[in-house]
Every structure is written in C-alpha cells, then in structure tokens.
Amino acid sequence: MKFQLSLLIMTIVLTGCTALNCYHCVEGNMITEDGQETRVPGEVKCARATKVNCDDVQGEAVCLSLKYTAVLIVNGLTKRLKAKGATCSNIKGDDICAIEKGSYVKEGVNVSSFNCTASSCLIDYCNTGSVPELSFMIMGTLLCLETLFVH
After folding, report:
1. At what angle are helices 132-149 and 2-15 packed, to 10 degrees?
2. What are the pLDDT digits (tens) for 87-112?
C-alpha cells in the first residue's frame, strides 16, 4: 500500500516536469535627448502570463535572463535604451548579447555603446526569480519518502 501511494505521488509530481518552461518577455524604455520617454517597441511585461514551453527550441534549451543598455543614434537623434528580457533559447551568454546588438545594427541604427549581461538557468521559470514549481516537486518528493519509510 505504501509503495502504491508513493508511486502515485511521484507520478503526479513528475508529470509537470517533462519540459523546461521559461518566461518570455521584454520591457524597458528609451529616452531621447530632449527627455521624452517611450516604451520599448513590442513590449511584453514579465509576468506569469508570458510562459513558454521550451519543447519548440532546437537543441539543449535554457532559460535566459538578459539586461542591456545602449546608446542608439536613429536619424541623427540620440536615444538611450535600458531594457531587460527573458526567453527560452539554445543560445547562451555573450552570443545572445551579440545577436541582440546585431538586431539594432541590421535595422540601420548606429549603436555607439552597448552593455549587455546574460545569465542562464535550467529550472522552470528561473529567469525571473520565481520558482514555485520546484517547491511543489520538493514537497511531493518529501511526502513520497515519508510515506515509504515512516510508519
């Protein structure tokens, strides 16, 4: 009976652990020389509603967190950009920063400075600092072990 209950608990716990899940978002602002502030185009707030499953990513996926600042010159107008983002990707660290910078250059924007930091992790929803699913896994595992070995 104990074994069957433990097996049932572990099955329930592991059903939510099949694929890596991450948050996908980008948010930030741009400030022009004259002090006008605008939001980053295509902004998606970093909230629980922006979850993505990494099954669609080719190769070994990780959750990425990205923060960057840049000075952009668009049509002779200087804009200061400060943004952060999160996504699921198989591209790691400095490579994703180079790709992000390249996306501005590709659009014909003169990038006079670009500072970027990226970090990766392999735990569900770890790219915004919230890991409730891991807590449920630990709780379920402890309950399972207690059911097997105590009593």
Report:
1. 170
2. 888 887 778 899 888 988 888 888 88
